[in-house]
Write the structure tokens for this entry.
Amino acid sequence: MDVTLRVFRYNTEAGRTKPSFDSWTLTDVDPTDRVLDLLEFVKGYHDGTLSFRRSCAHGVCGSDAMRINGRNYLACKVLVRDLNSTTITVEPIMGLKVVKDLIVDMEPFFESYRSVLPYMINDDVPADGKERHQSIEQRERFDDTTKCILCAACTSSCPSFWGDGKYVGPATIVNAHRFIFDSRDQAPGERLQILNEQEGVWRCRTAFNCTEACPREIHITQAIAEVKHAITSGNVD
Ligand code: SF4
Ligand code: F3S
Ligand code: FES
């Protein structure tokens, strides 16, 4: 099949100081090709300056979140046939500053992530001196939020984040949830306090865009609701 690929361009090094789009008509595209395959083809055969992030190409590293035909996806996970269109428009994710073409500055995203202490806090020596035991039920309590690959598809699809970029965003809350509900961790109260601040969970207006955008199918809005409930009830069971 033939596909028209439209890609957002902005590259001050190459003198492209105003945002614009470039288009390529690609022939012999297989419906099972991924959008990442099309971008790689254009970069390899048409324009080597086209810039985008990618690494694993298999939905694991989280580096190639992009806005494709108006919705956030991982370019390596979305197939041409899934888009039901012979015109594919690719843009950077929203709410983060564009650095070059499809590359955005991820630092504000990771700064927010770091703010909720996304690591195990427990200085006690385990009872047996080796391991901290957990029941199957205790492990299941936070299983869903362990799946995050920090791609930012959720945060950059959230209208509250687009507003001023200050809201900590759904990805940060997901990663706080992963430790807040872990029975081995000793600092859920600290994280809940951070998320109870002005730019924390209460900026979420239950828009659900985040849940729809997540390539890992994490129940993000539910996780946010659980964190809100933990703040109001003081209960992290
Ligand atoms: Fe990506 Fe989902 Fe993690 Fe958000 S919660 S950063 S969409 S994997
Ligand atoms: Fe935003 Fe998701 Fe809440 S899209 S408003 S964080 S439900
Ligand atoms: Fe790693 Fe797509 S390139 S998730």
Q: What stands out?
A: Residues 220-233 form the longest helix (14 residues). The first strand starts at residue 3 and ends at 11. The domain at 107-233 is CATH 1.10.1060.10 (Fumarate Reductase Iron-sulfur Protein; Chain B, domain 2). The chain has eight helices and seven strands.
